[in-house]
Every structure is written in structure tokens, then in C-alpha cells.
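Lab notebook, design round three. We kept the backbone fixed and only want residue identities now. Task for the bench partner: fill in a sequence for the structure below.
Input C-alpha cells:
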């Protein structure tokens, strides 16, 4: 009896144990399956979201710039250029992407060393964010895929030390030397190269802040990069003979050096004008080589031979089709030969400087101009910005029967009047009223149904292209207006003036490195957590 009861009890216990194990196994399978299904659904959602985001990014870029100064954003002008590219543009950077971080460190070191050596002080570290350049280039690639244009921007980084043949594709179209730490722009057979110095100058000191004895930086990289893209895709490059010298000496006074370089490098060269410096007294004005000649602020009169060469250039064997930009010196008078040349185009530079009691700031000679001929100027992005002409001489239109069509393009206000005479012979009227400051004269010749024109533009202000007035295109309209006038004269497609971007000292937002950290937090860490979850689930399942 005892044995039978024991067997029955053991059977009951065994049956209960089997039932419990079976129930636990079912629960294990049930919850394990649900976990796997949940993980599969989450992974599927992540994949779908990434695919959708990729497709949306191709149709419309997602701008995410958390910096207070919007340093990683592109201007509307640049975006418009990128969305309307008709040709592919390759940008080859001959250094690893990570080298931009090293450039930032080197710039900060040089800045601190300069202050220690010249001022004997230890300055606060200053952020030179060269690492923003590759991020900006990423935006160029992204936006170029959005528009109706057929072209795209493609960026590539190479190390010439390990891949010296990477530049062979471009060297056959480029006369200069392509070295490491350069930026190469290529489209069709057009090649433009930015040197290491050019890249360093993408971040420069703010001249306006320096005048207030403070240190501030501006980013000119977007302006430089966009200009090069436009240059290699431009089908109408205007060849310019830039009269820099006369008989080996500067044609202009030394204190005009920055004004002249701003005109040549910041305005013309960046907007599809291929400038070649010439000696106006020695070099030939070859009509086969040049489309336009620029004569900036001559301090001495020209010889008869130079005047004849200018006349021959503009006449062009009765074919015309040439252009000239002439800017008089602030104080140079008695330039007899030059005056006679201008008179033949119905133009006269008066021997006095204009002033306006309502002029900007405390300087009455910094007169503000208005547009007198909208056809010559065309559309400008923001017509509310002032056009400033410091130390401007009045430009008169002469009544002469010389088959010229002469037009006042920009005028001073009705409150302006001669402010300072430049010679004893000058006897200007003291009456207030509008005065001509920028004048264009056109000569033309018709052959059957074709009309050929040559244009002479005279800008009365020798400081019209002062660097502050040209570079700060979001404050002044000088750059946009003068560029538009020249484009209209030469038949060139409208150029784009990209403003420089002020960089704040303290940016209460992520830097490039911090942005990488955010990516790590938002992407890498969740992936790690998911992997840990899967491992834990598998281990629990196998127990």
C-alpha cells in the first residue's frame, strides 16, 4: 500500500512538473516571438524612414543649421545658382577632409603668436572654423541636385602624396601648377584653381571691426566658391585689359592700391571677367585678346600714342564691340589728352568734388546716389540699400555732334552741390541740385541689319570700389549696381554678388565637432542599445 501511494504521488508530481514546463515553454515562445516581431517592425520602420528621408532630400534639401550665426547655411543667391546649373562641376580638394581641422588649429596658433610678438599680450583663443568649409561643400552638392538645371556639383578629396595622378585630368586644361592644399574647379574644359592662400583667406578679419579696435572674423568662402563655379560654367568670359601700369610705374597713386585690387579681384575676377594687368604705355591693346579696358584713377596724362591706341581699340576697325571703364583720380586735373578723349565721347570730368549736407555719416562728400537710367542698371536684389560715392567728381554731358548717345546712369540727390574746387580756374555753380556721377556713352555702327556698339562708362567717385562698400553687399548696393551696369554693357549674363558672413565669437550652438557628437547620440547610441537588447533577448531565449 505504501508503495502504490508513493507511485501515485510521484505520477501526480511528474504530471504537474511536465505541465508547468510546457506552459513556461509556450510563454517563452510567445514573448520571444513578440520581441522578435517588435524588433523587426522597428528595424523596418527605421529602414523606411531612411529611404523616405533620402528621397525627400533629393527633392528638397533639409537645412539644419543650429548655429547662432547660420554659418553652415548658403545664401539664396548661391542656392539659385546651384539649382540652375546646366553643366556638371567637379570640385577637387587636394588634401584630406580632416586637414581643415588642422588649418583651424594653425590659424589660431598664428593669431596668438602675432599678438604675443607685436603687442606682448596673451589674447583669448579665437575660433577659426575652417572645418565649416567641407560642410559648406556638402551643401553645394546637395542643393545642386534640387533644381531644374542639368548640372550637379561633385566634391572629391584626394591626397596628392599617395595619389599624384588625381590631378592629371585637370592639368592639361590649366596653364599653372596644381599643388597640394588646393581647390580645383572643373567644368567642360574650364579649370580654375584656388591655392592654399586663397583657402586661408576664406576666413579673414573684419575690417570694420578692426577700425573699432576689436577682433572679429568674416567668412568669404561662399562668395569665393560660388564665383569659381560660375566662372567655369560661364559661356561668356569677358577678357579685360586692366591698365595697372604706365611706363613701369603704377598708373594710380599708392593709396588707391586697395581700391583698385577690390575692383579687379573682388568684383570683376569673381564674376566672370578675366583680368590681365597691362602697361598702358608699353603693351598692345589687342582687339583679338581683349573685350574691355579698365583705366583706374590715372594721376598723370596719357601720351598721344596711348590715346591713339585707346581710340583704335574702341573703334575696332569699324567693328566696335569694345568697352571701357574710366575712373578719374580724386584730385588730378589738367589731363589734357585724356580730357580730349573723353570729350570725343561727349563726357567731361569737372574739377570739383560734390557734397551733400544729408550725406551718410559726418562726411558730406560721401554722397548717396539714385538710379537715373534703370535700363542700364537692370534689376538688383535689394533696391533699398544705398549706393555711396565718396569724394566724387561731377561728370558732365557735353552737347557735341559726334554721333554719341550719352546717358546719366547714377545721379546725386537734389541737395548736392560742388563742395570743394580742385583748381583756381574752377568756378562751379553753388546751386543745389542733382548732379551726374556715373555716365555711359555709346557709339554704334550699323551694317545692314546688324548694329555694333562700343561703350565708355565713367564713374566719378575714385572710392566707389572701396573694399568696405564692395564687400559689404548686404549693406551697400555699390557692388550689385556696378556689376549690373558692366554686365549690361558687355552683354554678359547677370552675375551674383555673394555677401560675406560675419562669424560670431560665441556661438551658442553646436560646432562642426559638436554636430558629429549629436549624430553619435542620435544614431550610434540607439543602434548600440538595440544590439544590446538583441543579445540579451537571445541569451534569455537560450536559457
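Proposed sequence:
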Amino acid at each position: 500500500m505504501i508503495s502504490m501511494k508513493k507511485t501515485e504521488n510521484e505520477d501526480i508530481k511528474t504530471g504537474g512538473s511536465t505541465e508547468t514546463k510546457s506552459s513556461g515553454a509556450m510563454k517563452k515562445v510567445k514573448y520571444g516571438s513578440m520581441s522578435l516581431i517588435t524588433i523587426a517592425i522597428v528595424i523596418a520602420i527605421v529602414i523606411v524612414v531612411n529611404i523616405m528621408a533620402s528621397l525627400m532630400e533629393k527633392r528638397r534639401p533639409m537645412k539644419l543649421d543650429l548655429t547662432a550665426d547660420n554659418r553652415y547655411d548658403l545664401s539664396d543667391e548661391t542656392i539659385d545658382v546651384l539649382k540652375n546649373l546646366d553643366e556638371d562641376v567637379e570640385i577637387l580638394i587636394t588634401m584630406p577632409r580632416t586637414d581643415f581641422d588642422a588649418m583651424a588649429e594653425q590659424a589660431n596658433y598664428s593669431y596668438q603668436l602675432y599678438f604675443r610678438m607685436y603687442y606682448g599680450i596673451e589674447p583669448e583663443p579665437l575660433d577659426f572654423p575652417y572645418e565649416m568649409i567641407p560642410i559648406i561643400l556638402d551643401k553645394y552638392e546637395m542643393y545642386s541636385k534640387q533644381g531644374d538645371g542639368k548640372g550637379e556639383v561633385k566634391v572629391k578629396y584626394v591626397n596628392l602624396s599617395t595619389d599624384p595622378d588625381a590631378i592629371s585630368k585637370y592639368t592639361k586644361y590649366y596653364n599653372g601648377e596644381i599643388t597640394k592644399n588646393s581647390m580645383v574647379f572643373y567644368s567642360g574644359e574650364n579649370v580654375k584653381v584656388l591655392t592654399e592662400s586663397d583657402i586661408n583667406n576664406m576666413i579673414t578679419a573684419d575690417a570694420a571691426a578692426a577700425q573699432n579696435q576689436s577682433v572679429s572674423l568674416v567668412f568669404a568662402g561662399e562668395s569665393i566658391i560660388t564665383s569659381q563655379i560660375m566662372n567655369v560654367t560661364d559661356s561668356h568670359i569677358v577678357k579685360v585689359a586692366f591698365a595697372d601700369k604706365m611706363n613701369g610705374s603704377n598708373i594710380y597713386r599708392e593709396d588707391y592700391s586697395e581700391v583698385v585690387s577690390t575692383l579687379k579681384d573682388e568684383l570683376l575676377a569673381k564674376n566672370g571677367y578675366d583680368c590681365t594687368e597691362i602697361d598702358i604705355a608699353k603693351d598692345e591693346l589687342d582687339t583679338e585678346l581683349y573685350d574691355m579696358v579698365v583705366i583706374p584713377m590715372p594721376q598723370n596724362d596719357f601720351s598721344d600714342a596711348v590715346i591713339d591706341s585707346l581710340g583704335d581699340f574702341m573703334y575696332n576697325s569699324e567693328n566696335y564691340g569694345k568697352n571701357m571703364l574710366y575712373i578719374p583720380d580724386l584730385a588730378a586735373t589738367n589731363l589734357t589728352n585724356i580730357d580730349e578723349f573723353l570729350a570725343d565721347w561727349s563726357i567731361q570730368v569737372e574739377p570739383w568734388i560734390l557734397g551733400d549736407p544729408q550725406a551718410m555719416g559726418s562726411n558730406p562728400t560721401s554722397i548717396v546716389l539714385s538710379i537715373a537710367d534703370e535700363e542700364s542698371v537692370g534689376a538688383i536684389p535689394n533696391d533699398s540699400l544705398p549706393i555711396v560715392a565718396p569724394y566724387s567728381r561731377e561728370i558732365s554731358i557735353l552737347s557735341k555732334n559726334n554721333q554719341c548717345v550719352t546717358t546719366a546712369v547714377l545721379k546725386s540727390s537734389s541737395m548736392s552741390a560742388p563742395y570743394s574746387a580742385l583748381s583756381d580756374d574752377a568756378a562751379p555753380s553753388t546751386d543745389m541740385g542733382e548732379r551726374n556721377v556715373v555716365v555711359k556713352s555709346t557709339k554704334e555702327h550699323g551694317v545692314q541689319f546688324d548694329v555694333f556698339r562700343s561703350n565708355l562708362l565713367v564713374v566719378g567717385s575714385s572710392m566707389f570700389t572701396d573694399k568696405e562698400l564692395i564687400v559689404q553687399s548686404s549693406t551697400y548696393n555699390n557692388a550689385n549696381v556696378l556689376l549690373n551696369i558692366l554686365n549690361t554693357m558687355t552683354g554678359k549674363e547677370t552675375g551674383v554678388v555673394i555677401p560675406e558672413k560675419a562669424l560670431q565669437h560665441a556661438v551658442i550652438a553646436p560646432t562642426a565637432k559638436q554636430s558629429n557628437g549629436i549624430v553619435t547620440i542620435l544614431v550610434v547610441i540607439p543602434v548600440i542599445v538595440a544590439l544590446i537588447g538583441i543579445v540579451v533577448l537571445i541569451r534569455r531565449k537560450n536559457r
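Keep this in mind before ordering anything: Confidence is low (pLDDT under 50) at residues 4-8, 57-63, 209-213, 506-512.
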